[in-house]
Design goal:
By secondary structure, this protein is α+β, with helices and mostly antiparallel strands. It is about 20% helix and about 25% strand. It contains 3 helices and 8 strands. Strands 1-4-3-2 form a 4-stranded antiparallel sheet, covered by helices on one side. The protein has a 4-stranded mixed sheet with strand order 5-6-7-8, with helices on one face. Strand 3 and strand 4 form a beta hairpin. The protein is globular, with a radius of gyration of 17 Å. The protein starts with 9 loop residues before the first helix and ends in a 24-residue tail after the last helix.
């Protein structure tokens, strides 16, 4: 979560972080951008990035995918489902990759908003073909706990599972998915992407 890209210099800071991480593709949540777009941005050091984003109808939303110069021309299709869900199809070998970037409602959001979010993800999945590799990334605003759950949640999760975590696990079970970052060890501070005002 970048907590908005409207301030001057914020996008450049994010792109520099992506460059330092040597990431080919990165997903962003909370862009706050109110228009969908597909554009290029060049850092002062010369690195070029392609940015594809879905608009934020309301504040504190909006998702984007950022691709470095190596991957910029590999996008074969774009699907902007909503301000919380988008997808890109990437030409990769030996099979293509279908990437969905999400930003789920938080725990305090109305139940119908949470239901709508998963409906939008399901709708987006209809664009994926059977042969393509699927990656769903972003912020699910969920805790899945630190106990293994079948082949979905590994032993390296965080905290105690919450309602959003149960929704995520049920969704993964429905589509035969697993939550990657729970299957390999990371230090505690790397197991979450957001810290509340009270720590």
């Amino acid at each position: 979560n970048v907590q908005g890209l409207l301030k001057t210099g914020k996008l450049e800071n994010v792109l520099n972080e992506i460059k330092n991480l040597k990431a080919d593709i990165c997903g962003i949540s909370e862009t706050f951008w109110n228009e969908s777009n597909d554009f290029y941005s060049v850092l002062p050091s010369g690195e070029k990035f392609r940015i594809i984003n879905s608009n934020a109808v309301k504040s504190r939303k909006g998702v984007a995918c950022v691709l470095n110069h190596k991957m910029a021309n590999s996008v074969s299709s774009v699907h902007l489902t909503s301000e919380r869900v988008m997808a890109i199809k990437i030409n990769t070998n030996p099979v293509n990759t279908f990437i969905i970037q999400v930003y789920a409602p938080n725990l305090d959001s109305p139940e119908d908003e949470k239901i709508k979010f998963y409906e939008e993800v399901r709708e987006t999945l209809k664009y994926k073909t059977f042969q393509e590799v699927l990656v769903i990334m972003g912020d699910f605003n969920a805790k899945v706990g630190s106990s293994r759950i079948d082949n979905i949640v590994g032993p390296h999760g965080l905290g105690t599972i919450n309602d959003a975590g149960r929704d995520l696990v049920n969704f993964c079970d429905e589509y035969n998915l697993f939550i990657c970052n729970t299957w390999f060890y990371q230090k505690q501070s790397a197991r979450y992407t957001w810290t509340g005002p009270n720590g």
